């Protein structure tokens, strides 16, 4: 990439940051949060992994990406997988509530009665600690996941394999 292109991208980021410094929930976003939002919205970044320390504001990043895509007229299809403690977290509940208020159809898979994913679901949220083939919703989830635009997995280091062993690295 040429120096001119790099400087152009930096200038674009500066304008983006000025315009989007405050999140839709009124939080001031840091550059570490704005960079992945900018790269997704402005540069078409499709895949990335967020690795920040506790309390660095990871949850707000995908939620802001979703909102920015919606502001552009896009209607992204999203799969959110997280452990129960994250799904019960006050910030996460507030962010998910914001998606619902923004008109997105959110479907939560919390027990075996939730296995039928509605056709109009924009967002499917599942507690990955309860992914159990006997509950009968795995194929519905797999079919939904084939067409998603964004997959968010929180606390990925805690995902366990079929034997119940916590991951010790990339598998």
Key structural traits:
single chain; 171 residues; 6 helices; 11% strand; disordered C terminus
Summary?
By secondary structure, the chain is of the alpha/beta class.
Q: N- to C-terminal separation? A: 32 Å
Shape: globular
Strand content: 5-15%
Number of helices: 6
**Residue share in helix:** 25-40%
How are strands sequenced across the largest beta sheet? 2-3-1-4
Could you state the order of secondary-structure elements as H and E?
HHHEHHEEHE
Which structural class should the secondary elements be placed in?
alpha/beta
What average pLDDT do the residues reach? Answer: 81
Number of strands: 4
User: Could you give a short account of the major beta sheet?
Assistant: 4 strands, parallel
Determine Rg (CA atoms, Å): 17 Å
Which stretches are low in confidence, meaning pLDDT under 50 for 5 or more residues running?
Answer: 167-171
Overview of this protein structure:
By secondary structure, the chain is an alpha/beta fold. Helices cover 38% and strands 11% of the residues. A four-stranded parallel β-sheet has the order 2-3-1-4. The longest helix is centred in the N-terminal third of the chain and has 18 residues, at 3-20. The radius of gyration is 17 Å and the shape is globular. Helix 1 (3-20) crosses helix 2, helix 2 packs parallel to helix 3 and helix 3 runs parallel beside helix 5 (90-101). The protein contains six helices and four strands.
């Amino acid at each position: 990439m040429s120096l001119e292109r790099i400087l152009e991208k930096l200038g674009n980021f500066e304008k983006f940051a000025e315009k989007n410094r405050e999140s839709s929930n009124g939080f001031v976003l840091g550059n570490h949060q704005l960079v992945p939002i900018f790269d997704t919205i402005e540069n078409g970044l499709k895949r990335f992994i967020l690795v920040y320390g506790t309390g660095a504001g990871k949850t707000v990043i995908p939620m802001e990406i979703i909102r920015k895509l919606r502001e552009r007229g896009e209607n992204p299809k999203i799969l959110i997988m997280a452990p129960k403690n994250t799904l019960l977290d006050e910030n996460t509940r507030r962010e998910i509530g914001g998606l619902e208020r923004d008109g997105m159809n959110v479907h939560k898979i919390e027990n075996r009665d939730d296995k039928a994913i509605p056709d109009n679901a924009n967002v499917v949220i599942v507690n990955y600690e309860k992914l159990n083939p006997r509950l009968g919703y795995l194929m519905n989830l797999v079919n939904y996941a084939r067409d998603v635009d964004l997959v968010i997995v929180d606390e990925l280091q805690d995902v366990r394999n079929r034997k119940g062993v916590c991951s010790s690295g990339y598998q």
